TrEMBL record:
EC id: 2.7.1.40
UniProt superkingdom: Eukaryota
Keywords: ATP-binding, Glycolysis, Kinase, Magnesium, Metal-binding, Nucleotide-binding, Pyruvate, Transferase
Name the UniProt record assigns to this protein: Pyruvate kinase
Catalytic reaction equation(s): pyruvate + ATP = phosphoenolpyruvate + ADP + H(+)
Keyword Nucleotide-binding: yes
Pathway(s) of this molecule: Carbohydrate degradation; glycolysis; pyruvate from D-glyceraldehyde 3-phosphate: step 5/5
Pfam family of the protein (one): PK
Signal peptide residue numbers: none
Ranges where the Pyruvate kinase barrel domain occurs: 2-223
Species whose genome carries this gene: Aphis craccivora (Cowpea aphid)
């Protein structure tokens, strides 16, 4: 068993039985709700919720490092209001003249429209807004979300924790195919070529995964292994080569004809 707390007193001194997370959502959990750490490598089930911490049973455990991702699925968001931190990040992005802002946790078009209105109010109307599809609610409401976005960022690791690792391939095909028909650009994040953090050559499964994503119609691959690998340029060159091979297998004329029919 382990306690999960948002008490900042434990931010830099977690123990074997108490983990700090920077999220107030844990206090909205109920018995048997799940908390996923480090992209689902660790799964916790809630036993009870106390004043500033949650007591959990460890369903699936593994070594946990610092600053790992925390994912809490299926927590309803009743408000479309942006937090003060969200607003400050958007203002910073506008000041830096970025081209694209990724909007995480999109569950419906109402929330996305609220974000766009705020960006326009802050004179960032020329910035493209991409919806992150990283939860099952957003996936279920994808037909509602797609018309109002400038593009889509498919976050496979987060989404797979909710739909299941054995179903993420289907979610990818649904999202990318609908974006292609609608003419909306896509970025796909899938922990591609992770073994190249320590190896100069990826595994066969990683190669096939990246190429299949290209063949499914993604416009961009988000390659996060470059943040950890010592040979960043080699990772990028290898991924670029795989993307080109994947694109070469697509029958462009047939694809153009099929998209025109739709």
């Amino acid at each position: 068993h382990v306690y999960v707390t948002n008490d900042v007193e434990y931010k830099f001194k977690c123990t074997e039985d108490r983990i700090y997370v920077n999220s107030d959502l844990i206090l909205r959990l109920k018995t048997n709700d799940r908390i996923y750490l480090d992209y689902g490598k660790i799964e916790l089930a809630v036993i009870r919720v106390d004043e500033d911490e949650v007591y959990c049973v460890i369903k699936r455990g593994e070594l946990l490092g610092s600053e790992k991702t925390v994912h809490i699925p299926k927590i309803p968001i009743g408000s479309t209001a942006l937090s003060k931190l969200d607003e400050e990040k958007i203002r910073t992005a506008i000041q830096l003249k970025v081209d694209v802002i990724l909007v995480p946790g999109v569950r419906n078009s109402v929330f996305f429209d609220h974000v766009r209105k705020f960006v326009n109010t802050e004179r960032g109307g020329d910035i493209s807004l991409y919806a992150k599809i990283d939860n099952t609610v957003g996936l279920e409401n994808f037909d509602d979300i797609l018309p109002v976005v400038d593009g889509v960022f498919l976050n496979r690791p987060n989404l797979s924790m909710e739909v299941g690792h054995d179903k993420i391939f289907l979610a990818q095909k649904i999202v990318l195919s609908k974006c292609n028909v609608a003419g909306k650009p896509t970025i796909t994040y899938g922990e591609y070529l992770n073994s190249m953090e320590v190896s100069t050559v990826p595994t066969n499964a990683e190669v096939n995964d990246l190429i299949n994503t290209v063949m499914d119609g993604t416009d961009c691959i988000y390659l996060d292994v470059t943040m950890r690998s010592e040979n960043k340029s080699h990772c990028i060159q290898y991924a670029s080569s795989l993307c080109r091979q994947g694109e070469a297998t697509i029958w462009e004329q047939q694809l153009f004809t099929e998209l025109n029919k739709k």
